[in-house]
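Readers of this paper often ask what the protein records in our data store actually look like. An entry from our holdings is shown next, in its original layout:
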Amino acid sequence: MRFALFGAVCAAALALGGCPNPNQIGVQQFGTITATVLLASNNQPVANALVAVNTGPGGQCKTGADGTCTLNQVPVGPQSVTANATGLQGPPVAVNVAQQNQNYPVTILMYPSS
C-alpha cells in the first residue's frame, strides 16, 4: 500500500513538473479607448451606437447623447474598433494601445447604410 501511494505521489510530481511556472507567465497589461462616434456628413454625435473592440474583456460599450463611450480593459497592442448604429455604417478604425493605464481616443465616422 505504501508503495502504491508513493508511486501515485511520484507520478503526480512528474506530471506537474511540466506545468509552467506561474511566476514566469506574463501579466496582461490594459489601457482604455475612448470612442467618439460622429455622422460623417455633419460631425453630429451618434447616440446609442454599439462600439466594439476586437479583443479583450473590455469588449463593447454604447455611446451616450454626446456620441462617446469608453472601452475599459483593452489589452496593450494593436486593436480594431468598430461602431454599429441603425441605418449607419463606418469602417473599422485601427488604434495601438501602446502603454498600460493610458487612454487612447478614437473617432469613428458613420455613413448612411446602402
Q: What stands out?
A: The helical segments are 2-17. The two ends are 76 Å apart (CA to CA). The beta strands are 30-39, 50-53, 60-62, 68-75, 77-85, 88-89, 93-97, 103-112.
